[in-house]
């Protein structure tokens, strides 16, 4: 029988001596009462412990700097999993009736006054430890009973399904193993090139041409790594329905030509015979996502077509639909694989020497993005060695006359002073150096509190703030800067690794003017700074 986990007692006190004395006193009885003692120096640290562990009782100091005991208790009890944890407040002051009422409203079950009397403390915690032990044992027994009941109900069905499920699981496991192996291969290739190029730059006697070539390799392979990460994230978002489309009237014919030109400019089509018959065809779509669809279909054709092969791209409008097809003369698709080519973790036969690489998730992403646009996509092939054709259909709209954008203001202006708040030392140093090279005066800070102090002292024009900061996160930095009359005017751009709609909403609610997802391309960052500085206070966070 599995042993019941020991109950845990959390002691929260900002005074190191008091915390040490109280935890030592509790540990004298820990072996006898069979519990563990966990210590926290602040309300924030206590919340992190509550996220990690379940506690039989919490001994919480009332008077703490920053988040006091009442605020800490309220935060603990707002979380469903920790809402029932009993809290005993510890205070050096005699609490009046209003303080007691406030404490009980925040979830307290009792008060202890310092200096704590050991016998009283022992009597109180013994009750809660015993109660937690019995509750855990009851929950364990309930889980066992529930599991036995479920096992009995499902046993007949499970016996009938077992063989088929085992086969399905083996197929899925094999596909995932292949995917992980491919992912490791695809990550190691650009990482190896980046490492070699970086080592070359540091060698003595290397000439300027070699250094320039090495830098281009680092940039190119870094972009490749970024695309791999983007594919993984986009697939996850698409499968969970968290991709939001920015739909506008779009000429798919022009988009196809632009995408093909991009592939030609990078030299990816030079070993192939590529033809295109593209007609103007308008849809209501997200240009970035539809370009991603076309790029993935071209990537797939290149991946499975040997050099010297033929690739054809066609577009047309028929009966209210835009039809786009990508045909290749490559390895083709077997009849048993054809129904599964758009499934996650499914790839055709791959070889170790294929030049294009890839993760095998592009077609899954294609299908989901096309469906989000109200269309559909399917694959055709006569079999191995006969090539393949991928065709997508999208609802079309009437032709839209394009309006020319106003010319960009290229006049020279003084560069705004920038504050960079980033806890990653290497990332902070590189971004500061990069901005400095473009003429921006840059100051930087390694955490939220330092960032607030630097902002108040230096009063920069704009602050680039990482969200995942130690101490206080970027959301709190933004809120405090907006609340401070000395810093409320500073433009704020959030830098984060999260780009879902909910992440953007939280960023804007905290007071940021703009939201950028890491890694941030330098051109995009400079444009974002210019755009942010050009906004008026009334429209900055519209």
How is this structure best described in words?
Its EC number is 2.7.13.3. Residues 128-155 form a coiled coil. The modification 4-aspartylphosphate is found at residues 61, 466. InterPro entries: CheY-like_superfamily, HATPase_C_sf, HATPase_dom, His_kinase_dom, HisK_dim/P_dom, HisK_dim/P_sf, Sig_transdc_His_kin-like_C, Sig_transdc_resp-reg_receiver. By secondary structure, this protein is of the alpha/beta class. The chain has helices spanning 16-28, 30-33, 43-52, 69-78, 97-105, 118-201, 208-239, 252-265, 287-303, 362-372, 425-437, 448-458, 474-483, 501-510, 522-534; strands at 8-12, 36-40, 57-61, 87-91, 108-113, 248-251, 273-277, 282-285, 310-318, 321-328, 376-380, 388-395, 418-421, 442-445, 462-466, 491-496, 514-517. The chain folds into four domains: 8-116, Response regulator (Rossmann fold); 142-239, Helix Hairpins, CATH 1.10.287; 248-395, Histidine kinase-like ATPase, C-terminal domain (Heat Shock Protein 90), CATH 3.30.565; 418-534, Response regulator (Rossmann fold, 3-Layer(aba) Sandwich). It is 48% helix and 17% strand. The strands form four sheets. Strands 2-1-3-4-5 form a five-stranded parallel beta sheet, with helices on both faces. Strand 16, helix 14 (501-510) and strand 17 (514-517) form a beta-alpha-beta unit. Residues 349-357, 403-411 and 538-542 have low confidence and may be disordered.
Short account of what is shown:
With 542 residues, the chain is of the alpha/beta class. The chain has 4 domains: 8-116, Rossmann fold (3-Layer(aba) Sandwich); 142-239, Helix Hairpins; 248-395, Histidine kinase-like ATPase, C-terminal domain (Heat Shock Protein 90); 418-534, 3-Layer(aba) Sandwich (Rossmann fold).
């Amino acid at each position: 029988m599995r042993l019941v986990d020991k109950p845990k007692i959390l002691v929260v006190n900002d005074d190191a001596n008091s915390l040490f004395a109280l935890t030592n006193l509790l540990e004298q009885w820990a072996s006898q009462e069979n519990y563990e003692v966990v210590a926290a120096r602040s309300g924030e640290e206590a919340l992190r412990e509550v996220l990690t562990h379940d506690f039989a009782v919490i001994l919480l100091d009332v008077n703490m700097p920053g988040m006091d005991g009442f605020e800490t208790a309220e935060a603990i009890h707002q979380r469903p999993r920790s809402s029932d944890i009993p809290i005993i407040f510890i205070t050096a002051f005699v609490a009046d009736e209003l303080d007691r009422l406030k404490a009980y409203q925040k979830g307290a079950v009792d008060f202890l006054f310092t200096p704590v009397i050991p016998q009283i403390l022992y009597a109180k915690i013994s009750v809660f430890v015993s109660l937690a032990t019995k509750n855990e044992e009851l929950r364990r027994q309930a889980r066992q009973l529930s599991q036995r009941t479920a096992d009995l109900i499902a046993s007949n069905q499970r016996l009938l399904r077992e063989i088929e499920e085992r086969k399905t699981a083996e197929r899925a496991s094999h596909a995932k193993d292949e995917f992980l192996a491919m992912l490791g291969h695809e990550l190691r290739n650009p990482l190896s090139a980046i490492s070699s190029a970086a080592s070359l730059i540091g060698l003595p006697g290397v000439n300027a041409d070699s250094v320039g070539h090495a830098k281009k390799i680092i940039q190119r392979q870094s972009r490749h790594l970024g695309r791999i990460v983007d594919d993984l994230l986009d697939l996850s978002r698409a499968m969970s329905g968290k991709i939001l489309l920015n739909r506008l009237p779009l000429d798919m014919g022009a988009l196809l030509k632009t995408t093909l030109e991009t592939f030609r400019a990078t030299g990816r089509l030079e070993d192939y015979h590529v033809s295109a018959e593209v007609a103007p065809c308008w849809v209501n779509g997200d240009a970035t996502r539809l370009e991603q669809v076309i790029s993935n279909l071209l990537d797939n054709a290149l991946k499975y077509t040997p050099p010297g092969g033929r690739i054809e791209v066609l577009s047309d409008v028929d009966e209210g639909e835009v039809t786009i097809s990508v045909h290749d003369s490559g390895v083709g698709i077997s009849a048993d694989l054809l129904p599964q080519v758009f499934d996650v973790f499914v790839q055709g036969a791959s070889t170790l020497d294929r030049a294009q690489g890839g993760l095998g998730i592009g077609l899954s992403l294609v299908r989901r993005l096309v469906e989000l646009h109200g269309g559909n996509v399917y694959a055709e092939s006569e079999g191995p060695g006969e090539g393949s054709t991928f065709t997508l259909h999208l609802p079309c709209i009437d032709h839209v006359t394009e309006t020319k954008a106003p010319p960009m203001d290229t006049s020279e202006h003084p560069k705004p002073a920038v504050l960079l708040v980033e806890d990653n030392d290497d990332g902070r140093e590189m971004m500061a150096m990069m901005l400095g090279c473009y003429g921006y005066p840059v100051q930087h800070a390694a955490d939220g509190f330092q960032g607030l102090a630097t902002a108040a002292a230096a009063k920069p024009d704009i602050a680039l703030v990482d969200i995942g900061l130690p101490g206080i996160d970027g959301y709190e930095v933004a809120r405090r800067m907006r609340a401070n009359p000395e810093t409320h005017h500073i433009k704020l751009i959030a830098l984060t690794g999260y780009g879902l709609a909910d992440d953007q909403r939280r960023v804007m609610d905290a007071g940021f003017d703009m939201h950028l997802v890491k890694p941030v391309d330098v051109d995009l960052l400079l444009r974002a700074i210019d755009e942010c500085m050009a906004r008026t206070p009334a429209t900055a966070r519209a």
